[in-house]
Design a protein that fits this description.
By secondary structure, this protein is of the alpha/beta class. It has twelve helices and 13 strands. Helix 11 packs parallel to helix 12.
């Protein structure tokens, strides 16, 4: 593929309110650049704040949209990539296409498709983009194709320049199990057939595993972990508990899956997520009940050799399939070269 000029519109760690350094936007830009493309990052939220005399994103929407039009008019990109760029209006993308008729436009979204507000945000731009990428596969993804929309699965990318830890190479770490949560009580998480406030879930887990050393963020009275402190936490725990809001949306996962496995943690997640269709029990640890989860944690806390083997194998396979360059390349293949949007790397035959 010839080198492309790509304008990537998303939230980047540029401004006084820095975005998450582990964010998918940062990794996708890294992957595109490492694949040989020119990537011009446009941080829509920061531009909106900067263009408002009040420093308000809300009051900066119109000037931010005008700025993107002029930015694209000046740079004449081949591709516009929009990730959670809610400041940017559909009419703005349509106007850019009028100015640059050959431009290809894609949006991506890493939030769950069982949230109505997320579907609303996605749907608002389906008619003005050439392709949409979501981190959910199966029926929920295919429902977005109604009317002929081109929609494909995109894995949460792992980037070894960001996920730098190697917990899989260490026998004894400061903590046994890592779990972080943005909001423990709203909404409730559906785990193993039951709805949980995650403060209650962690209390139950502590009772089941009184000697397990937990490293927690945003739950159980512990502060949220951000920036470098979050990366340090990822590098100091043997296992990572990967729990999303519910497990029945095929292949949906919080992007913590890449952060945990990329830093060499054993990822523990519900089998109902479908990730067992890509990873074996020698690469991730799956559970269907809390008793099974408890037994797995107890076993791996004691058996360092087995834990390290699973973590190393899982990290290697995830990196092979879903590194930042591979995910970025697949996105462009679907957008520009009509690659099959139903192809999921690593999916084993049923």
């Amino acid at each position: 593929m010839r080198p492309l000029t790509i304008v990537h519109v998303s939230s980047f760690p540029f401004g006084l309110r820095p975005a998450f350094q582990h964010g998918v936007a940062v990794k996708l830009s890294n992957g595109l650049i490492r694949n040989g493309h020119l990537v011009l990052n446009f941080s829509d939220r920061d531009i909106a704040r900067a263009r408002s005399i009040f420093g308000s994103r809300k009051f900066g929407v119109r000037p931010a949209n005008a700025a993107l039009i002029e930015f694209c008019r000046f740079h004449r990109p081949d591709v516009i990539l929009s990730g959670h760029a809610d400041v940017i209006l559909p009419t703005t993308l349509a106007r850019i296409r009028e100015i640059l008729p050959s431009v290809r436009i894609a949006q991506y979204n890493v939030d769950p498709l069982f949230e109505p507000d997320n579907i609303r945000r996605l749907s608002s731009k389906l008619a003005v983009v050439d392709a949409t990428f979501v981190t959910t596969a199966g029926p929920d993804m295919r429902a977005l194709r109604a009317g002929g929309n081109r929609v494909a699965f995109m894995a949460n990318p792992m980037d070894a320049s960001i996920e730098r830890g190697r917990c899989d190479l260490v026998d004894t770490l400061p903590f046994d199990l890592f779990y972080a949560c943005g909001n423990p009580g709203r909404p409730l998480r559906h785990i193993c057939g039951r709805d949980w406030n995650m403060n209650d879930f962690i209390a139950d887990l502590r009772a089941r595993l009184p000697t397990t050393r937990l490293l927690l963020g945003g739950v159980g009275g512990h502060p949220h972990l951000t920036g470098a402190a979050y990366q340090t936490a990822l590098e100091t725990a043997a296992m990572g508990l990967n729990i999303s809001r519910r497990p029945d949306s095929y292949l949906y996962s919080s992007d913590r899956i890449a952060q945990m496995i990329g830093n060499g943690q054993v990822v523990l997640m519900e089998r109902a997520t479908g990730y067992g269709d890509i990873f074996t029990d020698d690469e991730m640890v799956f559970f269907a009940t809390l008793d099974e989860l408890t037994r797995q944690i107890e076993r791996l806390t004691i058996d360092h050799t087995h834990r390290r083997a699973i973590a190393t194998a899982g990290r290697a396979r995830y990196r092979d399939l879903f590194n930042e360059r591979a995910v970025a390349a697949n996105l462009l293949d679907v957008l520009l070269h009509d690659a099959d949007p139903d192809t999921i790397p690593g999916l084993r035959p049923a």
